[in-house]
């Protein structure tokens, strides 16, 4: 009974609103299809609702109300291009209708046509302020890097909803991104004032104080977050990162194991436990934690660290697989590019591929001494000694590493320059005694001896 009463009211509204001109009069068949559409829509049969609205539109194609109803169903069914076309027509027929612009903007948001979405939502909000669309506009401004406009829109929302703690929280995140840390701090504190049990704002304050090296306040807010929400991983993650940055690995590990003991696990928690165990040379445990972290979601650095763990365990095949996966996920991961390339050089295999990988790493980080050393060694392996010399000399100027001295020794020895070879090998031995290098120095000395 209530449904039919509602439909009757809608039909009366529909007819009365369109009775002023001949073009707006809805024909009986259009009304019939429209009512069918409402019935289907009320029972959540959206496919038939759409079919009915479209049939109604064929009878009355200039009806902006019908166009909006049709567009909303298309939007719900994720037929965004069709919805966009319908809403555009609705707006052209009724340019004073805020809802038409807002729906069009929302459709363009889903189509990732962000500038168009901004323009149409702005137009709609000029006609009528709708808070849900104002919030979408905030997101659009952030996506497109228009932070000042986003901040202005957040202030409008906060003026309308001064008791909404999430608005202050999101506003604080924006201000933090803008580098306005003092204002961000105020926003997070206001969020806590409104809702003292919201752990997220405590974590954000902990992060801010961590950046400011305000040790006491950072620890306090991280611990407050953990106390308020002991099953939320973010408090443990923040406190552990705080300790790791300060090389307080025992406290970091204690924090993370406490989280696991309470049944709170996350990708970052397992990842950090993996890093700590790797640092402590507990490679089997590191492997376990990295693999656990992968269950929460993969990323390039996670695969990279699992790869170097396998390398420490002398599982070269698995190391290579991990490095390739790391590069597949992020082709700009210069750490993985160099590591895999240099590992191939050590194994004396796939020298051309190794050279390409290392060259990419150097392109991404041209001032990195370790990568320049790798490139120089790759040229050595290819028999291009002058180029090897060039990059190894550059590497030696960028970074202290006895291995660079060792590489230079081999290059000069291969270039029949035993004096320079002995010089660089001798420097290498000052820091890393190696029997192999001592033997090479003796060979070089023999080159200097006059032939009898």
Automatic annotation (TrEMBL):
Q: Where are the TPR repeats?
A: 30-63, 64-97, 165-198, 199-232, 267-300, 402-435
UniProt key word Ligase: no
* Span of the signal peptide: 1-21
User: InterPro entries annotated for this entry?
Assistant: TPR-like_helical_dom_sf (IPR011990), TPR_rpt (IPR019734)
Signal among keywords: yes
Q: Which domain of life is it from?
A: Bacteria
Record key words, sorted: Signal, TPR repeat
Q: Which Pfam families match?
A: TPR_16, TPR_8
Q: What is this protein called?
A: TPR repeat-containing protein YrrB
Which source organism does the UniProt entry give?
candidate division TA06 bacterium ADurb.Bin131
């Amino acid at each position: 009974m209530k449904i039919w009463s509602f439909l009757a009211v809608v039909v009366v509204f529909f007819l009365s609103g369109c009775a002023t001109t001949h073009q707006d009069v809805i024909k009986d068949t259009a009304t019939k299809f429209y009512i069918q559409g409402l019935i289907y829509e009320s029972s959540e049969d959206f496919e038939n609702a759409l079919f009915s609205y479209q049939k109604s539109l064929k009878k009355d194609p200039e009806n902006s109300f019908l166009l909006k109803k049709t567009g909303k169903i298309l939007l719900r069914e994720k037929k965004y291009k069709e919805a966009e076309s319908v809403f555009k027509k609705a707006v052209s027929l009724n340019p004073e209708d805020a809802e038409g612009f807002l729906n069009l903007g929302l459709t363009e948001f889903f189509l990732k046509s962000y500038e168009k979405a901004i323009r149409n939502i702005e137009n709609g909000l000029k006609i009528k302020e709708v808070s849900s669309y104002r919030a979408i506009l905030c997101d659009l401004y952030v996506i497109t890097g228009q932070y000042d406009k986003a901040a202005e829109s957040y202030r409008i929302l906060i003026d309308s909803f001064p008791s909404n703690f999430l608005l202050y929280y999101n506003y604080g995140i924006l201000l933090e991104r803008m580098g306005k840390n003092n204002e961000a701090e105020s926003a997070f504190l206001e969020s806590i004032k409104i809702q003292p049990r919201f752990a997220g704002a405590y974590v954000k304050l902990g992060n801010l104080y961590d950046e400011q090296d305000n040790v006491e306040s950072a620890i306090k807010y991280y611990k407050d977050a953990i106390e308020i929400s002991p099953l939320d991983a973010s408090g443990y993650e923040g406190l552990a990162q705080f300790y790791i940055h300060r090389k307080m690995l025992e406290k970091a590990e204690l924090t993370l194991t406490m989280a696991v003991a309470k049944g709170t696990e996350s990708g970052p928690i397992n990842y950090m436990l993996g890093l700590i165990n790797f640092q402590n040379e507990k490679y089997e445990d590191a492997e376990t934690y990295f693999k656990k972290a992968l269950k929460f979601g993969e990323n390039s650095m996670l695969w990279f660290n699992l790869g170097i763990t396998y390398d420490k365990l002398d599982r070269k095949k698995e190391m290579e697989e991990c490095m390739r996966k790391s590069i597949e996920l992020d082709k700009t991961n210069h750490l993985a590019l160099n590591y895999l390339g240099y590992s191939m050089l050590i194994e004396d295999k796939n020298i051309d591929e190794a050279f390409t990988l290392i060259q990419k790493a150097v392109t991404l980080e041209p001032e990195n001494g370790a990568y320049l050393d790798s490139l120089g060694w790759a040229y050595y392996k290819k028999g291009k000694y002058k180029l090897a010399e060039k990059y190894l000399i550059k590497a030696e100027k960028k970074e202290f590493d006895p291995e660079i001295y060792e590489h230079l020794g081999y290059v000069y020895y291969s270039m029949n320059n035993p004096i320079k070879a002995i010089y660089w090998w001798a420097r290498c031995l000052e820091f890393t005694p190696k029997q192999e290098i001592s033997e090479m120095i003796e060979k070089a000395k023999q080159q200097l001896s006059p032939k009898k």
